[in-house]
Amino acid sequence: MSQEPAPGQSDVPPDGTPPAGAMTRLPESSLADGEWHRLHPATPLLRGGIFVFAILGFVIANLRERLLEFFFNVPRYGGDPIDRIYESGTVGWVLLAIAAVLVLILVAFYFGWRMHTFRVNKEAVEVRSGLLFRSNRKARLDRIQGVNIVRSLIPRLIGAAKLEVSVAGQDANVQLAYLKSSLADDLRRDILRLASGARRPDDSATVRGQAGSQIGTGQAGAAQVGADQTIADQTIADGSVAPDAVGAGEPNATGGRVAAAASGIGGFATDRVHDFLAPELDPDAAPPESVVTIPPARLIGSIVFSGFTVFVVLAVIGLVIAFSTGATGWILFAIFPGVIASIGYYISRFTKSLRYSIAGTTDGVRVGFGLLSTSNETLPPGRIHAIQVSQPLIWRPFGWWQIRINKAGHSTNQGAAGQASTTTLPVGTRADVGKVLELILPEYGGQAQQSLIERGMISPGGDDGFTNAPRRAIWLRPFTWRRTGYTVSDGVAVLRRGVISRDLILVPLARLQSVGIEQGPIQRMLRLASARLHTVTGPVSASLSVVDVDEASRLLERVSAGAVESANLDTSHRWNGYAAAVPTASDEPVPDERPTP
Amino acid sequence: MSEQNSAEQNSAEQNSAGQQTQADGRLNLPNVGEWKRVSPKYLVVEIVGTIIFTLVVAAITCVMWLVWDQLWAAWVGGAIVLICLVTVVLEPRRVRSIGYQLRADDLLFRRGIMFQRFVSVPYGRMQLVDITRGPVARWLGLADLKFVTAAASTGVSIPGLPESEADGLRDRLVELAESRRAGL
What we know:
The complex is a heterodimer. Chain A is of the alpha+beta class. Chain A is built from 20 helices and 21 strands. In chain A, strands 7-6-5-11-10-9-8 form a seven-stranded antiparallel beta sheet. In chain A, helix 8 (201-216) runs antiparallel to helix 9 (220-235), helix 11 (251-261) runs antiparallel to helix 12 and helix 13 (296-304) runs antiparallel to helix 15 (330-353). Helix content of chain B is 50%, strand content 21%. Chain B contains five helices and seven strands; from the N terminus they run H-E-H-H-E-E-E-E-H-E-E-H. A four-stranded antiparallel beta sheet of chain B has the order 1-2-3-4. A three-stranded antiparallel beta sheet of chain B has the order 5-6-7, with helices on both faces. In chain B, helix 2 (42-67) runs antiparallel to helix 3 (71-97). In chain B, a hairpin with a 7-residue loop joins strand 6 (142-148) and strand 7 (156-162). Chain B has helices at 2-18, 42-67, 71-97, 135-139, 163-179, and strands at residues 36-37, 99-102, 106-111, 116-122, 128-132, 142-148, 156-162. The longest helix of chain B has 27 residues, at 71-97. Chain B folds into two domains: 42-94; 99-179, Roll (PH-domain like). Classes of the chains: A alpha+beta, B alpha+beta. At the A-B interface, strand 19, helix 18, strand 20 and helix 19 of A face helix 1 and strand 4 of B. Strand 19 of chain A pairs antiparallel with strand 4 (116-122) of chain B.
């Protein structure tokens, strides 16, 4: 979309790039060129969706008898507003008023749309909006916590998507609602590429290749992907913007563009159908070894064996007792809405988590899900503040685990299954957990660390690399004291606790905010203390309720020293910048103001 | 209880072999420098606050008990007043327990006797420093300094610093944080 966006509805960029141009897309078609751009022309309608429904509801409520008469020949009694207008003889005025209101709304929409612009440059993503009250919102690229693309059902039908750039802080996100669906993915890639600090296309290609083979740990497939990207980038090495190397050689994308290029409604419809039928994750967007998906059967299992089901079962038992002791039929009416709500809850959780996929891309972890409304978020490296791998008792027979994370930026969109977007893996086997941890903590993937994580997940305790609570903690934690322990290795604090519901918590020390130890009177009698690693707010609370009192002070020293050291080595605010400067240490200085330790 | 005692003795022996240990099981940090304490005048701020609170509670209790004839209010109010009086007695020790020190890379903070708390905050994690002054504290020339990180649970707030010291400490902390700035 250039300065004068075409009102056309197709997904072809309005600058008329021919389908063949998909191979060598020119920089002008990128939205991240530092110029101001406008949003999708249908934006006002989509954003005002609720307003439109409210008007429709109002009209129907007032004219329902007339509508019934019109459609079903039901005779009506009493007048409605139309009768009153007709009788008072002011039909002309009313029509004029309606027309005026319509024109006003359209004009307001048009100007609102015209004034709502955004731009992406090397420093920030910026949005200007508002007609009377101008607002300007800017998100610095090195502070990006995640980029989310949401395609809700209705916007998706007309090929629009919402892109949200999360930054830390309450309600501090920058939303681009709505963009053309096909452009949103490209824009995200460009934003992340700019944010990563990779300034030149060949730099980014090298890094991509490295990252690709890193994830695959030298497997043939990953190496192939890396090589492809390098070649693709080299073919247009003179372009100043990295090309869509991933999608370049891909028949699907080209097919989609050809279909879209066939102008008119036919092409548009084909494209939309294609959009709905396409797999959740573009098969070439990430090396296949890194992709984690959830089979539908396991998904259903995890939803059935959840805390909510326990509640439902208890409610049913209560009802049976109520009936057997002679309750009357009125109770059915009382519970009927509850039954409907429960069924709705199960169905919505199921459809929202369908097609769940987690994959490692070059610019971070991509978490996508959804059947009708889809959402996929990319978390750049180093944006995860704490990770919790947990297993409720009810899942233990199946060997299922869940992963939740703390992150600083929160998308307004909910995560899979209506859960918070902090649930990275709703349900997975131990192998899946290993893969996901490798994606979200790539620097922690060695053999020793993996076995440590495994011990943390399933070991019953004992001398296994963790510093556990002493035996006298049995007075405070009769079941879990054996497993309550911690260790610090390779810049990550690993906490383990819980027996009935097993938890393993990983805190990257580079992200740790502070660490505290506490002691109450009962703990003092037992020579115990508790410890807590303070991270940004989230579902994961990294705390140990019982630690030996001397061990607690050692923990404080170890963790705080580790936090300082890891933070000095951390470069993830420009995650590719540092690495990219190494292979071509020629003209550009390291784009990174790392303080001297 | 005998099991527990023997277990304690065992571990105490093990610990004493390794490093110095706290005989009474009290949480303490060995090998740290001198703690900086808050101004003794801060005691006045705390006591004035507690006394005002006690008076308010006592007044409400009296009204409910004598005017509205609610006997339970007398018991509840009496208990609260008693707790407040005990707090006043313990106040000097509580104020003395508050301490902080600026180490090479982090700020170390401690407080509490009954419920002890030690926190270490690396300078680079500082988001902002807040200085607040209540009416009594202002009259005594004191200020509270709050160290805010991205984690809400950090909760490091050093009360009762002389105003000039609070300003100096703030500038020093900002300077330290600036030189060790990290991402979030």
